[in-house]
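haha ok so turns out i had the wrong file open the whole time. this is the CORRECT one, sorry everyone. sequence first:
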Amino acid sequence: MPRPTLEEIFAEPDEFGLLAVKLKPRASSSGNDSVSILNDVTRFFEQRGRLPDANSPNHEEMRLGTIWENLAKSPSDELRQADKLGLLARKEEITEVSWRDEIEDGDIPESLDDIFADDGLDVQPELVQLKHVTPAAERQVPDHRADFIPCKDFDQFESLFETMQQALDSGAREATLIEKWAIIEPLEGDFFIRNGLLAYIAEKSESTQRGGARDHRLRVIFSNGTESDPLMSSFRKSLNDDKTARAIQRLGLGPLDPDWETDKVALSGTIYVARSLSEDPAIKPQRDILYKIGVTSQDVRRRVADARNDPTFLLAPVEIVATYELQNLSRSKVENLLHRFFDAARPGELFIIDRFGKRIRPREWFYVLPEHVAHAAQLIKDGQLHQYRYDRATQKIVRRS
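then structure:
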């Protein structure tokens, strides 16, 4: 069945009277209403020194201005007699500015201060005051850059570079192109080609959280005798940006293959004990009993230079209170031994909130004293650490029974 047309609908009987609409007569402004509006405009003029603007963002002013403009076009005799201030004859000089108009140099503001100082711009002070913004002086600025410096122990790596270059020349080792945006996870012992130089990953420090993502500080040795300590994320970006970058494949089929660790050098290093200088109310009272135990193959001062931006160091500067040199001992094994040995003294509730609001729990801090670490380091050198344990109750290193 076809739908009825509008004509057919309106032709049907209107039993409810829906179409019987009576239009109200248009109200005409009487003399009394006109004088009342004039009185309102007069009060507005005395307070503001101008007529109400029909284009004002203020609703009341816009309404009054619109009505006044209509009255002023054809005022009655009664309205003229009541106009004591001559407002009917007054016309506001309004200059409309178009974006097509040529602007004089003197009319162009030189700064934001000039704009906000304009009398016609009524801006509330709280709208132009920045809140919840970190001052520029307090923003995250690295305390040191991962610059290239001479490698003082390059003699430990020189033969490794020569062997790798011979393997590449003979075809025994293969260098593969690094694809754009490839996810690269450098490991200790990995070789890369970057900017025409062989780059060796000598050290990968403990895990940290930067910008909400896991990161590490690397020690990278280059075949020209220099080294650098970039963040893993920065090193990954430098490889992606270098169109000539290559990754050199490892020997063996995987971590269980004996050949997999062929390129890894068991570097000696330095055990360091660091005390936090944090002003955090949750950390400051514990600064004399809470210490970080770390092991690094690079210069200790360089390792802690960017501590205040590193969650591993509680996002605060640190003071190196003790260092112990390692001789012919694997850095990574010594670090694991020390952390396991003092595991009972690791604070369970220690955490910090990074600048992204993420909670981070550093794992390298312990309730120990520097002399405890010195004792443990000596036991490692003597090969006797397995005969002792750390007693948290007495805060002493005791012989196992």
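The CA atoms of residues 358 and 399 lie 41 Å apart.
again sry for the mixup
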